[in-house]
Each structure stands twice: as C-alpha cells, then as structure tokens.
Amino acid sequence: MDAVQSFILEKTGTQKALLDYFHQMLLGQPGVVSKIRYKIPFYYRKSWICYLNPVKGEGIELAFLRGNELSNAQGLLDFRGRKQVGGIIFYQLADVPEDAVMEIVQEALLLDEEVAYASKRKSRKF
Q1: Which residue range forms the structural domain that includes residue 8?
Q2: Residues 17, 28 contacting (CB under 8 angstroms)
Q3: Average pLDDT of each block of 10 consecutive residues along the chain (126 residues)?
Q4: Overall number of domains in the chain
Q5: Residue 110, domain member (yes or no)
Q6: Is residue 14 part of a domain?
Q7: Has residue 91 been placed in a domain?
Q8: pLDDT (0 to 100) of residue 60
Q9: CB 70 within 8 A of CB 77
Q10: Residue 32: which of 105, 89, 118 has the closest Cα?
Q11: Going by C-beta distance under 8 Å and a sequence separation of 6 or more, which residues neighbour residue 6?
Q12: How far is CA 119 from CA 47, 48, 115, 116, in A?
C-alpha cells in the first residue's frame, strides 16, 4: 500500500469516500501518479496538476495548481483569494458533477502536456 492509499484509509465517512473517488479518477488518467506532499495527496505527470485537501465539515477541495491558466468554462473553480490555485470544495459524493470535473481535469492535463510550467516566484538576490 502506498502513502496516498494510507492517507485515504485514515479518513472516515464522506471525506474518505470523496478522497477515494477522486484518487481513482485521477489515477485513471494516462501517466498520472500520486505522492504525499505537504501532508496531502498531490497528482502530477510532468509537473503538479492538482491536489486533494481535506477541509472542515467533512469536505474535500480538489485544487488545481495552475487554475489561473484554465478556462473555467464550467464556472466551478473558486480562487478564494489565491492568485494561481483554483479549487472546488465538495461535501457529498452526490454533489460531484462528474462530466464538468472531468473536463477540468482533462484541460489541466492538456495544459501540463503542452505548456511548460514556469514558476512566477522571484529569485532572491544575495
């Protein structure tokens, strides 16, 4: 059992169901792998694509690291004051709009494949 599966098994109830659902969905995409980073599951291919972040109230945020570069045609991404990361918080598995979420995942994977990630972080000068 890998670290991400262990992380999911430690959770209970709705969070566990949501984590498992998104974990299976994301790993079902060609070339996508998962690792625990910053104590939560991250999914990447060439670069980080998204992560699953447990939130208060038994919810899960599916957050896209390059959300600001996605079209958000579905209107689901919420930036919550962040400039780059856009996410969607779910509290029930029944509330997940599967087709819309899959469109966002596919767009994020296409972006990862076609446009190299360039860090916007300023380098420090000593």
Answers
A1: 1-29+49-96
A2: no
A3: 91 94 96 95 94 93 96 93 95 94 96 74 55
A4: 1
A5: no
A6: yes
A7: yes
A8: 97
A9: yes
A10: 105
A11: none
A12: 11, 12, 12, 10
